[in-house]
Amino acid sequence: MQGKSCLQQLASVIPGYSGYLDKDRRRDIDKLHREHLAQELEKLKTPLTNLIRDLSETGRITEIKPIERLNGKLDKIANRIRYASYGYSGFFDVVKVQELELDKLYQFDLSLIEDTEAIKSQIVAISESSDASSLKTAASSLEKALDSLDAHFSQRHKAIETIV
Q1: How many domains does the chain have?
Q2: HSE (CB half, 13 Å, CA atoms) of 133?
Q3: Which range of residues forms the domain containing residue 31?
């Protein structure tokens, strides 16, 4: 995606995404972005659920609990993102926002998508773990990435507040 602006990159990933420039559509665009992130995270539960089933079928019962915890964490983060409150209403009400400030927000939003992509890669790694030790290592790494995404999303309201 090199050579494209952050807005163009976001628009290429999220269908219907047009940016926050139009005051009347900001809430819709914000919801669209959050819904996209939540859906991407929910899709990642399927390979973990499949892994739990495979572990169960092969008698590796003791290895299931950490994967179930990760599945629950994915669900929690997806719901948190999807149902985040509009605690930063000033952003939605202000008539004119500077392009430079919007670009910072687009960069932040794009970084959330990049975090989600990194988590996808880690889920592939955890699914390919062949023994208890590599599964434990991959699960620990994935849990840190999920915690990082959760913390990163918590900073989003600050990024929005700097615009107003």
Answers
A1: 1
A2: 0
A3: 6-161
Length of the chain: 164
Other C-beta atoms within 10 Å of 77: how many? 21
Residue 86 dihedral angles phi and psi, to the nearest 5°: -90, 60
Q: How far is CA 48 from CA 34, 38, 111, in A?
A: 22, 16, 24
Give the residue with greater pLDDT, 144 vs 109: 144
Q: Is residue 30 part of a domain?
A: yes
Q: What is the pLDDT of residue 24?
A: 75
Is 1 a member of any domain?
no
Question: How many CB atoms lie under 10 A from the CB of residue 74?
Answer: 21
pLDDT for 54:
95
Distance of CA 133 to the CA centre of its chain: 27
**Domain presence at residue 88:** yes
Give the pLDDT confidence score for residue 71 in this predicted structure: 96
Give CA–CA dist 160/3, Å, rounded: 25
pTM (two decimals)? 0.85
Domain assignment present for 53: yes
